[in-house]
């Protein structure tokens, strides 16, 4: 069994409009944009990162906003809901704030003993806020949300699967242990990890496979402390029969990827070096940062990429 995984690192999705996406996460949700860069494989498309003050692992939602991308079709084989942690008793504040920002899909419920507020992102993305007691993670308060209400980071993601068996076995191998079941949902958590250590498995045998597009999660990334731990995880997965990519330098972390039995793309990402490697922490996400191989494109990209503010 793998014991190096600490919980979620980041979640990466696709969007149809960069400016609208930026406004939603910074204005409505009050998160900090911690990096403004471009897609390694398509440099004419932004890669935007939102999180807490420093973009700590377990807090970062990232997006590829592809102009004119078709809307995704929800289904199985993908992440269903990305859930953020907020302090106990703050859902009324968040409902009022999201209503004021004209956010769609508001619905309250309770699961596993905790109150949740579901809502939709600009492209129909599935999100929820869950009340968590004593989540002491540092927060970002620079976008008009106070420290008493601010999002702490991720709580969990749910995976929609036609059959949970093989994915549950994989997660068990990755260190996740069963916690509980509720309304047919299986909850797993990684002991001793970060505060974003929960995965929910939804079994939907009669639902078709999803079609990725705007509003879809592209992949979910799990955190390991460093490259040594990542290499150990890679070897363990490959020894078990998974096809895992070589280590890829993503500037702010090193990454490996593999496809799960249920169809979801998993990434294992390092906690090092972090988002302050090329920007002062006081100015994260302000300047356009380019990967080394795309730096020669700066004059073209600065003209082509849509302005996010103003």
From TrEMBL:
InterPro entries listed in its UniProt record: Extradiol_RC_dioxygenase, Glyas_Bleomycin-R_OHBP_Dase, Glyas_Fos-R_dOase_dom, VOC_core
Keyword Repeat: no
Superkingdom as given in the UniProt entry: Bacteria
Occurrences of domain VOC (ranges): 7-132, 153-271
PROSITE patterns in UniProt: VOC (PS51819)
GO terms, molecular function: dioxygenase activity
Keywords: Dioxygenase, Oxidoreductase
SUPFAM superfamilies from the UniProt entry: Glyoxalase/Bleomycin resistance protein/Dihydroxybiphenyl dioxygenase
Pfam family, one: Glyoxalase
Signal peptide range in chain numbering: none
Protein name: Dioxygenase
Native source species: Xaviernesmea oryzae
């Amino acid at each position: 069994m793998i014991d190096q995984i600490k919980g979620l690192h980041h979640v990466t999705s696709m969007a149809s409009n960069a400016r609208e996406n930026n406004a939603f996460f910074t204005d409505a949700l009050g998160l900090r944009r911690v990096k403004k860069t471009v897609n390694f494989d398509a440099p004419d498309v932004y890669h935007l990162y939102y999180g807490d003050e420093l973009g700590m692992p377990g807090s970062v939602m990232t997006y590829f906003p592809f102009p004119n991308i078709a809307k995704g079709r929800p289904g199985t084989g993908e992440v269903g809901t990305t859930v953020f942690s907020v302090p106990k008793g703050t859902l009324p504040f968040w409902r009022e704030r999201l209503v004021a920002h004209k956010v769609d899909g508001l619905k309250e419920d309770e699961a596993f003993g905790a109150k949740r507020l579901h809502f939709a992102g600009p492209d129909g993305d599935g999100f929820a806020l869950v009340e968590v007691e004593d989540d002491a993670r540092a927060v970002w308060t620079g976008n008009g949300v106070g420290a008493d209400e601010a999002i702490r980071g991720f709580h969990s993601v749910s995976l929609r699967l036609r059959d949970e068996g093989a994915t549950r076995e994989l997660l068990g191998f990755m260190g996740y242990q069963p916690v509980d079941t509720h309304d047919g949902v299986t909850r797993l958590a990684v002991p001793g990890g970060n505060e974003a250590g929960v995965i929910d498995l939804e079994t939907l045998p009669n639902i078709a496979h999803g079609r990725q597009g705007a509003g879809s999660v592209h992949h979910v990334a799990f955190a390991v402390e460093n490259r040594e731990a990542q290499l150990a995880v890679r070897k363990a997965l490959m020894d078990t029969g998974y096809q895992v990519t070589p280590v890829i330098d993503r500037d702010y972390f090193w990454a490996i990827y593999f496809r799960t039995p249920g169809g979801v793309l998993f990434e294992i990402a390092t906690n090092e070096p972090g988002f302050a490697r090329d920007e002062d922490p006081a100015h994260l996400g302000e300047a356009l940062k380019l990967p080394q191989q795309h730096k020669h494109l700066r004059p073209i990209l600065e003209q082509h990429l849509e302005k996010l503010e103003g």
